[in-house]
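Practice problem 4.
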């Protein structure tokens, strides 16, 4: 049985691995069929391999500080509030995580406050909707 502490640890590992660009540790937090949604740019990525590649190919130069992690009592979902620093700009974001029966992240939805056109060069990994 996955506990709320397990889910919190999975989210902490996810963010630490992303920050350190440790793609093996990052991938270990994800279910094979993970679904990543970015509603503010209408993009979706399906599957661990594409999602890890999406992050690996993302240019360095951004820093993410997790400000808060909240996990539901049923042990199925978590949410984080983060602060992204990209150059001199700081942006808040909210991320919702859903987990599979093994405690791996099966879905992530990122909400950013600004709508913008996504950068070019990632069309091979994402679906637009």
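Answer key:
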């Amino acid at each position: 049985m996955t506990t709320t502490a397990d889910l919190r640890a999975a989210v902490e590992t996810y963010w630490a691995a992303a920050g350190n660009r440790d793609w093996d540790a990052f991938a270990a937090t994800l279910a094979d069929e993970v679904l990543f949604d970015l509603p503010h740019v209408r993009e979706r990525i399906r599957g661990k391999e594409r999602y890890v590649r999406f992050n690996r190919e993302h240019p360095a130069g951004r820093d993410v500080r997790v400000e808060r992690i909240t996990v539901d009592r049923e042990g199925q979902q978590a949410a984080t509030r983060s602060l992204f620093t990209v150059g001199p700009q700081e942006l808040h974001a909210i991320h919702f995580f859903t987990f599979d029966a093994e405690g791996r992240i099966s879905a992530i939805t990122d909400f950013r406050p600004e709508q913008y056109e996504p950068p070019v060069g990632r069309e091979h990994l994402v679906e637009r909707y």
